[in-house]
């Protein structure tokens, strides 16, 4: 019997986010939401200040464009956290996108703790 799409998707998400810290999970969750075109979900990973900046700069169309970049590389194969620095209520997570087309790209996100949860502040 074949597993359902939901089961496979859930297992994949658990594999991608099951290991690592809360900061890692925020970064990976945000990137995967962008890739899937789930703009409301992606926006939920942003701090209040980052959402204000996003709205002033063009809103969710910018998030959609970022997700489109992943599609140009045939999607994300893996997101590897390469370094993390946590200092109180702020953190920086450096990571490497490995894309399905064989290319890779290094990036980093600053995070801030907001209402007890880590949020991307970029």
What does this structure look like?
With about 120 residues, the chain is α+β, with helices and mostly antiparallel strands. It has one domain (about 20-120): Nuclear Transport Factor 2, Chain: A. Helices cover about 45% and strands about 30% of the residues. It has helices at about 5-15, 20-35, 40-45, 50-55, 60-70, and strands at about 75-85, 90-100, 105-115, 115-120. Strands 1-2-3-4 form a 4-stranded antiparallel β-sheet, with helices on one face. A hairpin with a 2-residue loop joins strand 1 (about 75-85) and strand 2. Helix 2 (about 20-35) packs across helix 5. The model is unreliable at about 1-20 (pLDDT under 50).
Features:
single chain; 122 residues; alpha+beta; Nuclear Transport Factor 2, Chain: A; 4-stranded antiparallel β-sheet; 5 helices; 4 strands; globular; disordered N terminus
Please report the distance between the alpha carbons of the first and last residues: 44 Å
The CATH topology corresponds to Nuclear Transport Factor 2, Chain: A
Number of domains: 1
Low-confidence stretches: 1-19
Structural class: alpha+beta
Oligomer status: single chain
How would you sum up the major sheet?
4 strands, antiparallel
In CATH's first tier, which class applies?
Alpha Beta
Task: Give me the number of helical elements.
Answer: 5
Number of strands: 4
Helix content: 40-55%
Listing every helix as H and every strand as E from the N terminus to the C terminus, the arrangement reads: HHHHHEEEE
Q: Strand share of the residues?
A: 25-35%
Task: Record the strand order, biggest sheet.
Answer: 1-2-3-4
- Overall geometric form: globular
Rg from alpha-carbon coordinates = 15 Å
Can you name the CATH architecture? Roll
pLDDT average, as an integer?
86
